[in-house]
Amino acid sequence: MAKIWAVVKDTGGTKAVLPVVVALRALGHEVQVIANGISVTQVGDDQRAAGFISVTTAGEVLERLGAPPHMLVTSMCSEGGVGRDLVPLVRPHNTKVVAVQDFYGAEMLRAWAALEHRPDYICVNDSVGAEIVVRAWSDFTPERVWITGFPALDRYAALYKPNATNTLMDEALEQSCGIPPGTTRVLFCGEKEHTGHTMAELVAALNEIGHPVALIPRMHPAMTRVAPQEVEPTETALRGFNSGYIVHNSERFTTDELILTAEVVVSMSSTSLMEAAVCRRKALAILYPDHGARRFQEVTGFLPSDKPLIPEVPVVELGCCAKATNREELTAVMRRLLRDGPDADMLAAQKYHFKVDGLNAHHAAQRITALLKQC
Questions:
Q1: HSE (CB half, 13 Å, CA atoms) of 218?
Q2: Is-contact 102 75, C-beta < 8 A?
Q3: Contact 149, 356 (CB under 8 A)
Q4: Same domain assignment for residues 81 and 112
Q5: pLDDT confidence of 166, banded at 50, 70, 90?
Q6: What are the angstrom distances between the C-alpha of 296 and each of 5, 11, 210?
Q7: Nearest Cα to 313, choosing from 278, 343, 272?
Q8: What is the mean pLDDT of residues 218-224?
């Protein structure tokens, strides 16, 4: 039986790889999950990671597990981590390496840029993601890019109810958080840098519009650690909100659940906007040139020509999400999203580009299985 190692590190990478682990096991493969970074605290009670080991270095993996596997499946997390560092150690043993993205262009020009760290194959969401890979790694041939859909999005297949207008989750949120029934819910998903400025701009726009909303702030779990300077301006901005209700006590609900219950999901460029598209929610990217847009380009990186790898946030480019680049645009777009019913063009684009069939991980597992047969 082929031996497979699956490595997870950050939250997004864990959400991407564990569904593939389940799909591989369903096909009869034996998979050893290896956790490092924040994932160590996230997989403890997760049956999908049953039997996982916790490590801090790639060398420790080899010491504990012995000979390298036939296949290494890894997330592409920030700062690389054990998954990236294992690549040059296992490659001399003819181990094939498959990387699973959870976001377009993730870390390709940063932590995973060096040739020695690049996978043999990579799973992406769609043709846009495939084009980004080839643009970032010019020597990476198109046949090594597998369009499988993002496995991290499969979880919404069980949650998303396209015809539900007043679900039990909606009622639970209203009752638990004291939101008057029928109040429009706006979910703000923060990131790290520039969150304070972006929150302040959103609050100013909502105050000017004057349409009462339930504003649900959901901060990035790493913001206080990585960008502590954003905490005070974010809290100051929230104290200035005067157009409805701020939901401070939403901790009992996951971000997935909040996206499903929101009418509008707002962020800079986080995966929450892509998840809003999967859930057919109205989405808005706040991308001021010196703030949200700059952060996105810093995270995704620049080509040797100094041009950004991804000039536009993909969900915006695909028409699945609205965009605002200044206060005037933000106020106008938000007013339209709050006032009007479903955005027909946005909804059509979301349905076309993001399927909700729960089969992305299965597609990845099938490709991995076929590759194993060639080894």
A1: 24
A2: yes
A3: no
A4: yes
A5: very low
A6: 31, 18, 30
A7: 272
A8: 90
Q: What total number of domains does the chain contain?
A: 2
Looking at the fold, whether 341 and 365 belong to one and the same domain comes out as no
Residue 231's nearest CA partner among 274, 196, 271 is 196
DSSP E strands in 197-326: the ranges are 213-218, 244-246, 264-267, 282-286, 322-324
Starting at the edge strand found earlier in the chain, the sheet holding 264-267 runs: 244-246, 213-218, 184-189, 264-267, 282-286, 322-324
Residue 61 in contact with residue 90, Cβ under 8 Å? no
Do 182 and 139 have their domain in common?
A: no
User: By C-alpha distance, which of 106, 104, 161 is closest to 131?
Assistant: 104
316 shares its domain with 365: no
CA 248-251-253 angle, to 5 degrees, is 120
Does the pLDDT value for residue 177 go beyond 90?
A: no
The whole-model pTM stands at 0.90
- Residue 247 DSSP code: -
Indicate the burial class of 166 (C-beta count within 10 angstroms; 0-12, 13-18, 19 or more): exposed
Amino acid letter, residue 86: L
Burial string for 284-298 (b: 16+ CB within 10 Å, else e) reads bbbbbeebbbbbbbe
Measured distance CA(43)–CA(14) in Å, rounded = 8
Helix axes 195-209, 327-339, angle to 10 degrees: 60
pLDDT, one tens digit per residue, over 291-320 is 999 999 998 999 989 999 999 999 999 999
User: Which two tokens mark 255?
Assistant: 């971000």
Q: CB under 8 Å to 92, separation ≥6 — which residues?
A: none
Residues 97 and 205 in one domain: no
Domain that holds residue 363: 3-154+358-374
Rounded CA separation 160/36 (Å): 30
Claim to verify: residue 257 and residue 193 sit in the same structural domain? yes
Indicate which CATH number applies to the domain containing 304: 3.40.50.2000
Could you tell me if 93 and 127 lie in one domain?
A: yes
Report the relative pairing of strands 244-246 and 264-267 from DSSP bridges: unpaired
